[in-house]
């Protein structure tokens, strides 16, 4: 049985590409277009010879509220939490809910070894280490006629 493709994945990928095209342009304010702001996760991607290291800011979340996934050359980081406060006074009950979510998807420049990926979370900073995949050697020899 084949699994149906989620149409929102394509839409999200489109907006990520659109955002990346403009984020380094001088004078471009992402908040004007709704692409930045409070729910935007700040991310650094470093190339360290044999591995990539991604550092992402996710303050206020616990490590259980953060999901990191690697699929092919795509890294997705999601953080989601919900707070619920109830306050009761005599006959008055007040209930407040607050939820917060962050999501960021990065296209990695080279394939990585998915099994070797590791992540740590300390003081609101998520650090993900992604070992690069060894280049495939050999290939298929083509005879020329």
Provide a brief overview of the structure:
With 145 residues, this protein is mostly beta strands.
Characterization of this structure:
The chain has 145 residues and is mainly beta. It folds into 2 domains: 7-37, no CATH class; 38-131, Sandwich (Immunoglobulin-like). Helices cover 12% and strands 43% of the residues. The chain has 1 helix and 7 strands. The protein has one helix spanning 7-23, and strands at residues 43-48, 51-57, 66-71, 74-89, 92-107, 118-122, 125-131. The strands form 2 sheets. It has a 4-stranded antiparallel sheet, with no helix packed on it. A 3-stranded antiparallel sheet has the order 3-4-5, with no helix packed on it. The longest helix has 17 residues, at 7-23. 10% of the residues are buried. Residues 24-37 have low confidence and may be disordered.
Domain count, please report it.
Answer: 2
Poorly predicted tracts of residues: 24-37
CATH architectural label of the largest domain? Sandwich
User: Largest sheet, if any?
Assistant: 4 strands, antiparallel
> Helix/strand/pairing class, anyone?
mainly beta
Strand numbers in spatial order across the main sheet: 1-2-7-6
CATH-defined topology of the largest domain: Immunoglobulin-like
Which term fits the overall shape? Answer: elongated
Radius of gyration: 21 Å
User: Into which percent range does the helicity of residues fall?
Assistant: 10-25%
Strand content: 35-45%
* Assembly state of the chains shown: single chain
Distance between the termini: 43 Å
Mean pLDDT: 78
The number of E-state strands comes to 7
Order of helices and strands: HEEEEEEE
Number of helices: 1
**Overall CATH class of the largest domain:** Mainly Beta
InterPro entries: A-crystallin/Hsp20_dom, CS_dom, HSP20-like_chaperone, Small_HSP
Family: Belongs to the small heat shock protein (HSP20) family.
Organism: Halalkalicoccus jeotgali (strain DSM 18796 / CECT 7217 / JCM 14584 / KCTC 4019 / B3)
Pfam families: HSP20
């Amino acid at each position: 049985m084949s699994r149906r493709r989620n149409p929102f994945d394509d839409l999200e990928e489109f907006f990520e590409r659109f955002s990346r095209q403009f984020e380094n342009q001088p004078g471009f304010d992402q908040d004007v277009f709704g692409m930045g702001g409070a729910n935007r996760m700040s991310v650094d991607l470093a190339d360290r010879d044999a591995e990539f290291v991604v550092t992402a800011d996710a303050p206020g979340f616990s490590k259980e509220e953060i999901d990191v996934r690697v699929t092919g050359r795509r890294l997705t980081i999601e953080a989601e939490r919900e707070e619920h406060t109830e306050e009761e006074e005599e006959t008055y009950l007040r209930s407040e809910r607050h939820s917060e979510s962050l999501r960021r998807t990065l296209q990695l420049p080279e394939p990585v070894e998915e099994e070797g990926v590791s992540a740590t979370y300390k003081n609101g900073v998520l650090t993900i280490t992604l070992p690069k995949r060894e280049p495939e050697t050999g290939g298929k020899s083509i005879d020329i006629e």
